[in-house]
Amino acid sequence: MSAETLNKNIETVKDVLKKYLEERGHRKTPERFAIIEEIYSTDEHFNIDWLYMKMKEKNYRVSRATIYNTIEILLDANLVRKHQFGEGQQSLYEKSYYAKQHDHILLLDTGEVIEFCDPRIQTIKDSLQEIFNIDIESHSLYFYARKKK
Ligand SMILES: [Zn+2]
User: Fold this and answer.
1) What distance in angstroms lies between residue 25's CA and the mean position of ligand 1's atoms?
2) Does domain 1-99 have CATH number 2.30.30.40?
3) Which residues have a beta carbon within 5 Å of ligand 1, which is an ion?
4) With bands split at pLDDT 50, 70 and 90, how would you rate the model's confidence at 84?
5) Residue 104 annotated as lining a ligand binding site
6) Which residues cross the membrane (predicted)?
């Protein structure tokens, strides 16, 4: 992605966030916009500690509570996706606004997360909707794997 596209995308999600905060009467603090900017500047899955560290590096005075609180807002606004890859593991998050539908493979030895997109999953969804006469709103699918020796 070019720097120009990235900046345009960040401006767009900031507008989405601004509208969301206004509609609900939440405060539009600079920290919230700095947090979303950080999130949309990375392609990685991240945890709260990572975000906290990034904000500190940029000399923002934000507490972990502020980060948790902002993440809750971003989840509700559908700007962020949350993953719980394993029991007792920290939640991981990722940006979701421009992200294409994808699923995840978690490598158990390294903790590395691989993203993949397979159109057959859409085919399964379509067929389930037909069979059970339902509308599927979302799904989560994780494969837990080890690299072949
Ligand atoms: Zn992902």
Assistant:
1) 30
2) no
3) 94, 115
4) confident
5) no
6) none
